[in-house]
Amino acid sequence: MTTIKNNLEKINGRIYRAARKVGREPEEIRLVAVSKRVPIDLINEACIHGQKLFGENYPQEAVDKISRMESEIKWHFIGHLQSNKASMVAGAFDVVETVDRLKIAMGLNKFMQENGKILPVLVQVNIGRETQKSGVLPEEAWELSQELLKLKNLQVRGLMVMPPFLPDPEAVRPFFKQTRGLALTLQDMGVFGDRSPELSMGMSGDYEVAIEEGATLVRVGTALFGRR
């Protein structure tokens, strides 16, 4: 058994058990394989073993990879997005998880409008209020969401967070719980239409706790591909 196959099986097994622990259906949770700085051959190997959803952080690196991969793969942009790269990202990705400014959203919307398409997006929230991280503050999420709803070629699907890095996953749980509460509040306000909100939260060290607190997307890179 290859390392990638073995790692995938371990991760999916842990996703399954974390979901069952809290009475959720494992199918509700999707694994976003974080493939930044991962060579094409390893991404292809993950694909062979059933992984079809990948997350990339750097637009130019990602566009090159996407152009060389099979079309059935789905790609999420999960990195900090600069406004001058908005059209590049909008044209290549299926979902943008890191919308935290109206200017970025307008750039994405303009490209999608010109091409007659709809782009699903997540609002990135700085749930830990860390000055070095991107994202709107929790109390600003409603205002930004209202502006995004005016952009007809974007579809607000949920929230994405990167909580503080803490060695004990249990210490991160309150941030995941707060994110879910915020998402439910925004849902009650009609931000996500008639859909349940997507919650992109949890990475290699804490994704099981994130699942227990409602994550629908978990972004795992190191546990799958190893350290870059």
CATH topology (level 3) name: TIM Barrel
State the total count of DSSP E strands. 8
CATH superfamily: Alanine racemase
Mean pLDDT: 96
Q: State the secondary-structure class.
A: alpha/beta
Task: Give the strand content.
Answer: 15-25%
Write down the domain tally.
1
How is the biggest beta sheet arranged? 8 strands, parallel
General shape? globular
> Largest beta sheet: what is the strand line-up?
7-6-5-4-3-2-1-8
Low-pLDDT segments: none
Whole-angstrom Rg: 17 Å
Number of helices: 9
Strand/helix succession: HEHEHEHEHEHEHEHEH
CATH architecture term: Alpha-Beta Barrel
CATH class: Alpha Beta
Query: Quaternary state, please?
Result: single chain
Helix content: 40-55%
From the N-terminal CA to the C-terminal CA, the straight-line distance is 21 Å
Give me some keywords for this one.
globular, TIM Barrel, eight-stranded parallel sheet
How are the elements arranged and paired?
Blueprint (H helix, E strand, L loop, with lengths): L2 H19 L8 E5 L5 H9 L4 E4 L2 H10 L5 E4 L8 H7 L2 E5 L2 H14 L3 E7 L15 H8 L5 E8 L7 H20 L9 E3 L6 H6 L4 E4 L1 H4 L3
Helix pairs in contact: 4-5
Walkthrough of the structure:
The two termini are about 20 Å apart. Strand 2, helix 3 and strand 3 form a beta-alpha-beta unit. By secondary structure, this protein is an alpha/beta fold. Helix 4 packs across helix 5. About 45% of the residues are buried. It has one domain: Alanine racemase (TIM Barrel, Alpha-Beta Barrel). The model has no long low-confidence stretch (mean pLDDT about 95). It is about 45% helix and about 20% strand. It is globular. It has an eight-stranded parallel sheet with strand order 7-6-5-4-3-2-1-8. The protein is built from nine helices and eight strands.
